[in-house]
Design goal:
Two copies of one chain form a homodimer.
Chain A: E1 9-14, E2 19-24, E3 30-36, H1 40-49, H2 54-72, E4 78-81, E5 96-97, E6 100-101, E7 110-115, E8 118-122, E9 126-128, E10 134-136, H3 139-148, E11 160-164, E12 169-175, E13 178-185, H4 187-197, H5 212-223, H6 231-234, H7 237-243, H8 252-270, E14 280-283, H9 286-298, E15 304-307, H10 311-321
Helix pairs in contact in A: 1-2, 3-10, 5-8, 5-9, 8-9
């Protein structure tokens, strides 16, 4: 492990519901890390509860998150990615339009003063201003981090597809180091709502393990001719299959998960730009990545690489490109 | 108006969140009617709150709803349709499978004794036990009521399509008086969740009137090549169009409504069985029916008839078919 004395950067992955802080050393190694449920939503709640300005609430939260590091290393740069740079965040970092070079040395970072002569730099999100526009904040940095780990064998570096599953999953086309286009699917958020609050939730019995056969069954329905209909038309089967004795209550949750992830994959593969993707990199938590990998396999996409925790590496790479930390590549 | 002395039937349309009672007279005319928010969900809550058996809570609720009619007309039959006949209802009326003759004189009604020698008859729902099964309770009776009003000009009586929009909209193929198949779309419930609790809700400003242009824009997106993707992929545009200054916050709600109803219609028209439907009857509330009619027009389906409040007429027709009330057709 790198000696803490070598700390060269404080990197923050500051999202909607959580904040992760990384103390980084030589070559982008992670010296220490923390995660707290202090996303921008909680910061806004704190501001309201304690009658603080939003900016002051962000200052306080930053202190909770890594005040000790800021004090111990008073001169190293501090950089964040994620929703902290949104309109509802600390300070807005205007979206960069596609095509967006992920390690652009000239990319305009937003800044906010966190101590006298000390700035927090915020990495801007990316906008694909197509007919139905798409935006991301944070995922661009995860992708840059993934690319730092090298390409996937068999993946053309000029034609890569990244999947970042989650509340709003992102499917991103990257050519070299440039995001060329992307799409968002509200799968995670819609799944959470349907499985906890809709009529489908009434028949869900929790299961201690993932019911993979039920999950795969859902994916197969999404892949079948019936899956051509919108999810709103297929989802009711998560209830009626139970009513007709053809699905167990403990299977409903994973069946629905498969149905929804399958519908997402089917839709994305139908987009002209991803239709030919032979290989794919998933950046996301293990449990969710495993679901997508399994579902992609059913759709015939076998060459899938899963990566976790790529955000700090991406922040480091951008800090190098921007000359904020010394880079061996610079 | 029919004299109340001529009352011949008490008809109940007893659903999940509301209960409607109709006192009916000669020829199926409605002598008096009531609607209370005493659906089976509220009955279950009452049972729990007051430590009653579910059956007792239903008895009490029936008294609240129409105890005076039951007393004033102690010999006329009492019939209900809807979720009161579900597993979570008063007594289960087993689903009838398709093909289901809506006015079958031999259809098995469930019964429960509501007073000495007095029964409540409950009309069974219908099950389409296809690969992804579908069920309905109450809608079959609304359709029968609609058919009592006569066919729609231009609609082949052997090939009719009924749409019953709502929390779970039903698209129903009817040949003569027989339901041959149907599909359910969870549009209304999913819309309510997305527009009140998802990230899309954050940018919604209420509007005092329907923003028809935003609604139509949503339908057009659903109809466009981009609408081939699942709603989970197109719905995020209700946020990003605002972020990019291309949609007003007061338009988000109706844009999303158009997007979702459009996705539903696109999906249903893609089903082989409804692809050729030239004409259609909508049974539902006025506001929602107007949305579907407008969206259907954009999809080129101009011959649409809207009907409201057909349930009592359907109950009357079934009561006639079953010999429970004298029928001029019997």
């Amino acid at each position: 492990m790198t000696n803490i004395a070598e700390a060269q950067l404080i990197a923050l992955d500051w999202g909607t519901t959580s904040a992760r802080a990384y103390l980084m050393g030589n070559g982008g190694s992670v010296v220490a890390e923390r995660s707290l449920p202090l996303g921008i939503m909680q910061v806004a709640a704190t501001a309201q509860a304690e009658s603080l300005t939003l900016a002051r609430a962000f200052e306080v939260t930053l202190g909770e998150l890594c005040g000790d590091w800021l004090e111990a290393f008073p001169t190293i740069p501090v950089i964040a990615c994620g929703m902290v740079g949104s309109q509802q965040g600390w300070v807005e970092a205007a979206y960069r339009p596609v095509p967006a070079d992920l390690a652009d040395p000239c990319a305009q970072l937003a800044t906010v003063e966190i101590a006298p002569s000390r700035l927090l730099h915020i990495i801007p999100g990316v906008l694909d201003n197509k007919e139905l526009p798409d935006v991301m904040r944070g995922e661009e940095t995860q992708i840059l981090g993934a690319m730092e780990l090298g390409g996937q064998p068999g993946q053309d570096p000029e034609d890569q597809v990244f999947l970042l599953p989650g509340t709003h999953s992102k499917w991103v086309k990257v050519s070299g180091r440039t995001i060329t286009e992307f799409s968002t699917s509200m799968t995670g958020e819609t799944y959470a709502l349907l499985s906890s609050q809709s009529i489908l939730s009434k028949l869900i019995e929790p299961s201690s393990t993932v019911q993979w056969s039920a999950f795969e069954r859902g994916v197969q329905v999404a892949q079948s001719p019936q899956g051509a209909a919108d999810l709103m038309l297929t989802a009711f089967s998560a209830r009626t299959l139970v009513l007709t004795g053809r699905l167990e209550e403990t299977e409903v949750s994973d069946y629905l998960s498969g149905l929804m992830i399958g519908a997402e994959i089917r839709s994305v593969l139908g987009l002209p730009t991803t239709a030919t993707a032979p290989a794919l990199t998933i950046c996301g938590n293990k449990e969710l990545s495993a679901r997508y990998t399994r579902a992609l396999g059913i759709f015939g996409i076998e060459q899938v690489r899963e990566l976790q925790g790529t955000a700090p590496r991406g922040i480091w790479a951008l800090a190098c490109a921007q000359g904020l930390v010394p880079s061996v590549f610079a």
